[in-house]
Structure formats: structure tokens, C-alpha cells
Amino acid sequence: MKIRGFEKVILDKRKYEDLDINLPKRASLNSAGYDFYSPIDVELCPGEQKIIWTDIKAYMQNDEVLQLHVRSSMGIKRGLLLSNGTGIIDQDYYSNCDNDGNIGIAVFNRTNEIVKINEGERIAQGIFIKYLVADNGNTEDIRNGGIGSTNLK
Predict the structure, then answer these.
(1) What secondary structure letter does DSSP report for 2?
(2) Which of 32, 96, 125, 140 is the most exposed place for a label (fewest CB within 10 A)?
(3) Is 153 exposed, middle or buried (0-12, 13-18, 19+ CB in 10 A)?
């Protein structure tokens, strides 16, 4: 039985079919975060945002979420932020019909310089977190797509 982890997105939903994709891994024994690697070279102009598709999906338990955070080296040394602050990957994003759960990391260059990210460079880290559900305000709705699909009615 699978509990939580990462897999490559199915071939017909990948952005980079011919590339060897590195699954996220922890840098050290006590690291909380799993490092995500850029599958391509990326250049960000000042004030520019780009989504780097990882061709990776995450599976987890029903009461868990994968939070994505910018790596300290990217934020402090390079001046990059995640465009959405913290990325939230819900359990039901896994294998969705739109993109098979392909995790996109939206980076924003807050500097006045061009920032280059090299293929294979660690860009973000994901942390699996347990969460609680409130007594009220819950839903029975089911996700039927990828990014932004839960606000479509």
C-alpha cells in the first residue's frame, strides 16, 4: 500500500517527454522538505513570472497536503519567490483528468537582474503536512480537473 510519495506524470500529460525527470528527495536525514529540481533551463527577467512544470505528481493520504516553498537559496541568494507564496497540492490533484497531477512551480523574479535557473537545479521544496477539518463549512464536491478546477461551477 502506498502512503505518500512522488511519481512521474504519465507520458501523454508530460511537458517534457524526452527528458529524464528527477523525483524529489530530501537533502539530508533530518530534512523536512523534498527538493524539486528544474527539468529545464529557465531565464527570468526582472519582474517576470514563469511556471516550471516538473512532470511529477504527488500521492498522499486524504488528510494530508503537500506544501511547496521556495528553497532558501533561491529566495535569499537569488531573489526568487513562489508567485502564490506557498503552493498547496491537494490529495485529489493526483492523477486528475486535465494534467495527471503535474506539479507546476510558479516562480517570480523580484530582482532588477536576469536570474537563470539551470536544468537539474533545486528550485523548491515540498513538505507533506497533516491537516484538520472543521465541523462546519465542509463540502461533498469532487475535483474534476487540474489547476483552478475547484472554483469552476
Answers:
(1) -
(2) 140
(3) exposed
